[in-house]
Each structure stands twice: as structure tokens, then as C-alpha cells.
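thread from #wetlab-drylab

HS: before we spend reagent money on co-crystallization trials with 2-acetamido-2-deoxy-beta-D-glucopyranose, can we at least see a predicted complex? here's what I'd submit
DV: go for it
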Amino acid sequence: MIKMEKIFMPVFLICCLFFSAESCKDSNHVPALYVFGDSNVDAGNNNKLKTAFKANVTPYGIDYPGGLSASGGRLSNGFIFVDFFAKWLGLQPPPAVNNVDLNTTETIDGFNYASASGGILEDTRFKDNENLYMGKQVSMFKDTVEQYLPKHFKNKTELSNYLSKSIFVVSIGANDFIFNLEMNMAPRIPNPKQISKFSKKLLKHLRDYIKELYQLGARKFLINEIGAGGCAPQLYLMNKQQPGGCDRRTNQELVSYNKHLAPEIKKWKKVTQKLIFRTHENV
Ligand SMILES: *[C@@H]1O[C@H](CO)[C@@H](O)[C@H](O)[C@H]1NC(C)=O
Ligand SMILES: *[C@@H]1O[C@H](CO)[C@@H](O)[C@H](O)[C@H]1NC(C)=O
């Protein structure tokens, strides 16, 4: 298990993706944090969706300042990691964009688009539960850039300057293994070739979404490796082979995805020349 945790830990800070290193200078001030992903970082976007994957009930939020009504649907007793990150940057925890009245709010500290049970692929879902997959999250961010943000900046130059200094957290992918039909063929026989092929497919889609964000003005990305999703409480409960234990099969798949992530980012780097990476794996 210690080995597993090691594999799951690294986080990649990709600065100025698809762009020159010059724009990384003068980047100490981070004006906003934008969040994309799944239940690890969802701040309540699923509250109004038809889904069982929401956390606007007790005991969620019991340790959040202001309790459940203030935690707003975070799948946590308190703050989630992007909230701590935001506070560290001197920003407000990014609110779930679905729960904000964009006509009246004034914040330019960033928004959260993440959705529990969502994945990189559109058809990743549990039965007929609704969620916001990565493509939907990106299109919601596009609306933010085109409709909300221009009201808060004097001109386009100011807006793109703001976006280029903001940080974009992307924490997604586990559900594509847990809830995707392509992978969830019963019985789930471990097949390294199939897992590898599927991981590459996911990363190809992820690359396209990162490019879209780039085209909308994003320049700094923090991309997570996937956590040990096989240790989610639900998978504990469903684990018949080893009751009360993590689902090893799922974790093996996620490790495979994580192994592909760094080489894939290296490829993105080749395409974009002066891309800067910060990771303790030294990509
Ligand atoms: C926000 O304003 C738009 C345009 O005026 C309107 O169509 C929309 O219903 C408003 N949204 C809310 C939540 O009031
Ligand atoms: C945009 O606004 C800033 C701040 O008011 C100003 O310095 C700059 O010249 C403006 N740029 C354009 C292209 O209008």
C-alpha cells in the first residue's frame, strides 16, 4: 500500500502550456483559481442534477465554517483540497458555478465546475444518473469567459492578462474507469493491454480539453494524477472478494493511467517547445 500511495501522490504543475516561457515571468500573483474535475473537487454542482451523487445532506459539511448550508454540497466534512489551495493563494474558496447567481455575484476569484461521478468521457456515468463530464465543464467555463467575465474587466487585454495568470486545476479520470461501460465489462478481467489503450484514449480527450481551455485564455494548469479511487467507500462496500478492503482491480487500472500521464504530458511539451513543468517526478 505504501508503494501504491507513492505512485498516486505526484501532481504536475504545467506552466504556460502551449506557450512560451516568457509568459511565466511576473506570474507570482494569482488572481483566480478555476476548478474542473470529479467528486474530489466538486463544490456542489450536482445539487440540482438528477443524481444520487450529491452531498447537500448531513453529515457532509459538519466541519465547514457555517455548516452544511455554507459547504454547499462539497463531498467532504469540511474544505476540499482546492479550497485550501485557494486560501493559500489568498482567494475565496471557488464556489460551485451552478449554485451562483451570475447576475448578482461580483467575484472574480474563480469558479468550480467539478461534478461528482463525472469523467473525461461523455458516456461515463452510473446508470442514468446525470453529471457534468469534462466537456460540459469546459463549455460552462466558455460561457463564464464570454458572458460573465467581460462585465468585470475594462477591456479584452485586461481579461486575457487575468486569465493567463489564473491557475486551472484539473482533477478527473477515476470515474472513467469506475463507471465507464467500455471498462466495466462483466466479469472485469484484468487486461493490461486494454487498460493501456483506454488510458491513452482518455489522455487524448484530456489533451483536447486542455487545448480548449488554452484557447479560452488559460495558461497555467495543475493536473492531478488520479487518487486511489478503489478505496472510495462505495467500492469498499461492493468489494465481494475482500470485504472491507479497497478494490485492487480499480486501483491497478488507475496506476496504469497515472503511468501514462507523465509521458503524455512530455509529448504535449514537445509540440509546444518551451513548456515548463514542475513535478517531483522531474518530467
Ligand atoms: C440573469 O439575467 C438574464 C438576462 O437578463 C436572465 O435571462 C436570467 O434569467 C437571469 N438569471 C437569474 C438567475 O436571475
Ligand atoms: C485596457 O485597459 C487598461 C487599463 O485601463 C489600459 O491601460 C489599456 O491601455 C487598455 N487596452 C486597450 C487595448 O484598450
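DV: Strands lie at 11-15, 33-37, 167-171, 220-224, 276-278.
HS: ok that's useful, forwarding to the group
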